[in-house]
Amino acid sequence: MAASAGGGDGVRRRGCCGGGLFPEESFRSWSAYGRALLETGPRLRDRATARSLDSAEVNEVRGRSGADMKRTLTWWDLIWFGIGAVIGAGIFVLTGQEAKEAAGPAVVVSYAVSGVSAMLSVFCYTEFAIEIPVAGGSFAYLRVELGDFMAFIAAGNILLEYCIGGAAVARSWTSYFATLLDHHPNDFRVHVPSLSEDYSRLDPIAVAVVLLICLFAVLSTKGSSRFNYVLSIVHLVVIVFIVVAGLTRAKAANLTADFAPFGARGIFAASAVLFFAYIGFDAVSTMAEETRNPARDIPIGLVGAMTLTTAVYCVLAVVLCLMQPYSEIDPDAPFSVAFTAAGMDWAKYIVAFGALKGMTTVLLVSAVGQARYLTHIARTHMVPPCLAQVHPRLGTPLNATVAMALATAVIALFTDLGILSNLLSISTLFIFMLVAVALLVRRYYVAGETSAADRNKLAACLAAIMASSVATAACWGATIAGGGGWVPYAVTVAAWLAATLFLQCGVPKARAPKTWGVPLLPWLPAASIFINIFLLGSIDAASFVRFGVWTAALLAYYFLFGLHASYDAAKALAAEADAARVEEGARKPGGRQLIVME
């Protein structure tokens, strides 16, 4: 990846893959690669502590895409992208499942708890998106505050969430399409008996939908926005119909007779699952690079979309529980069956149509968001840099969009994804927790300015906040298993309160936000850490095993490829910065670099 200031044999490798899939120095020959592998330890120490600068992410790293993305989005676009990203098929399936099996009518409280957790994360994402308006989203934020290594682990889980989640939605799209036509979903799938049972139902319709959505996402971000909010408006009209028609068949006794039959345990267990229904809003933060006025548009867009989404979810949950006793709710098609039981069989087609529209917008926003994540990751050379290319005429990340669409389409074609919903929730809760930690680091620590004593106090507070959150989740798990009581919570929650209070009063802030900041610092980010970890404690052990396997695969890739490519790219960028200062006649060539190693 080296660049020569004076020509000669130097090759500039920004914005293209002219030097191969991995054009960096470490991959120019097998001997060079062997030397790089022998230096894995020192390079890992370097990248684990390397933190990028805001200016580097916004300028130099973004410049590796060649062309700029077009700034065409406003707060109106972001609100509709947020609604389109979040309100999908989940509300039409998960509500019935959790009401019947976990929470009863108190599922509305479960939605509220998940919504509060999501809103706390929205606040953290909003401040970062304003300060660092680039396509990388949480990857860029973590790279600036927690370093390359943690950013890569988060990035791998984000891409997993988008890819598998998109495939699951695409297969659901086929199911609801079949319902509209009075067919069984498998009528539109090709059965291949020679394949394993979980992979034997090939879904060509899902593949076609994913590729068509990819085409929309590639052609124009603004055009995708317009298409999205037209579909989202139609979707909201269907939701209004469900609410109004459902209330005409409502019975208050269904809601109040046994509001929380499974107690607090059921409410929080349902919240962990229902959090999946809120996944997607982080895709909006990746559009900051294409927003006309990030300081104004992003807070309105993100907070407005999440507020509306939470309200819609809670209202729909109440309506469902008013229409039927929770014990009679169908876990697979709750609203359709509820309308049929109420003598309105025709309404199930409207419900299926609404779900279909919702899934289409989720796929569209997912395609836009996941491509921007991958684009910024490729700008750092952790994955092949050709994926960072922005098409000069369209102003969209063409290669990244196509790559993610192909991966999603392959999974959607073969795989039954029922077992992976909890894995997706683990990935998302883990990343949201890291973003909250990164925000506290950003506000309380600045390299070269924060004293060692204050840095150590910050580290101790963060460790105490996370440890007390983990202990609370462990106590909750023991309570669910039938052991323990409520006394341990008095210790763990008190420890969390004490750590957060000390952070507020005993550690000076090192930085203030330029335009908009998270209110009630440090309480809201600390609460986000607490709730995300608590919800993680409600997810089954088998899902954590799968999460561990995926993380191990990420680490293997990172140690073999990503570490060495990003190390070479960072060193080349620092060398170019030094060369530029020398050419400008700078008197202090050892001054602050664009990429600093702390």
TrEMBL record:
Gene3D superfamilies reported in the protein's UniProt record: Amino acid/polyamine transporter I (1.20.1740.10)
Query: Does the keyword Transmembrane helix feature in the UniProt annotation?
Result: yes
Q: Where are the transmembrane segments?
A: 73-94, 106-128, 202-220, 227-247, 267-288, 300-326, 346-369, 398-420, 426-446, 458-480, 486-503, 515-535, 541-561
Q: Which segments constitute the Cationic amino acid transporter C-terminal domain? A: 516-566
InterPro entries with a match to the protein in the record = AA/rel_permease1, CAT_C
Name where it's found.
Membrane
Q: Which domain of life is it from?
A: Eukaryota
Q: Which GO terms describe its molecular function?
A: L-glutamate transmembrane transporter activity; L-lysine transmembrane transporter activity
Main location class: membrane
The membrane topology noted for this protein in its Swiss-Prot or TrEMBL record is: Multi-pass membrane protein
Key words of the record: Amino-acid transport, Membrane, Transmembrane, Transmembrane helix, Transport
Keyword Transcription among UniProt keywords:
no
Cellular-component GO terms for this entry? plasma membrane
Q: Which family does it belong to?
A: Belongs to the amino acid-polyamine-organocation (APC) superfamily. Cationic amino acid transporter (CAT) (TC 2.A.3.3) family.
Q: What is this protein called?
A: Cationic amino acid transporter 1-like
Q: From what organism does this protein derive?
A: Panicum miliaceum
The organism's taxonomic lineage, starting at the top: Eukaryota, Viridiplantae, Streptophyta, Embryophyta, Tracheophyta
